[in-house]
Amino acid sequence: MAGEQLAQTVRQQLGIGRVLPLGGPANGSWITEQAAAGALRAALGTPSGVRLGALRLSVADPVHAHDPVVPAPPTALPPGPLRISAEFAAVADRPLPAVADQVRAALLETSVQGLGLVVAAVDLRVTGLLTEDEAGAGRAEPALTTVRPEKPPVTAEPAGAAAEGPEALAAAALAVSGVARLAPVLGGRTRAVRRTEGHALIQLAVAAGYRALDVAVAVRQAVAALPDPPETVAVLVTAVDRD
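RE: above sequence
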């Protein structure tokens, strides 16, 4: 039974990828690599004549990363600027360096404006050349779009202030604009809010149109405003919904 549980945990961890810092050391926020990469792909779209391949995120310089101000989620990487590594194939109808510059600029803008990631570098690798039929697009210039928050997250009065324990924390989180739902991926599928002595970890999904970092910070503020708050609060964004 223990072996099966360990195997399930490993498969789950591989599915969500790395647990990456969201914002800086003082923000107390993290995001799964799966959620971040999915949001980047959705916001970037596929430029005309370009097929985006593997996309990974990691801490650019782990040796010089900072210590988090609050305890990090299990397996989380330390706060520090990130490196985005992506592969793409493109139609050779314009200089590949120019195409790479467009993709790099779009990934950078989306990372900062749409999610709140701190990015130090974007490494791109061309993996092949495509025909127009393979790319599924004509020769039009690529239109790269980014996710932008339509309205800032606003913290409502915590609906669960009268509750106790994790229930109060869950109610406070759900009352924050931009929180789509509680969505645990670590520590069991039913443990979105984990409160231990002096610390709480809240796992949630961010609604479409909201900046992930802003929502995570607002949730931490909402929990801190409870009558009996934990000493420290960490937020893990596990999904970013699309329109």
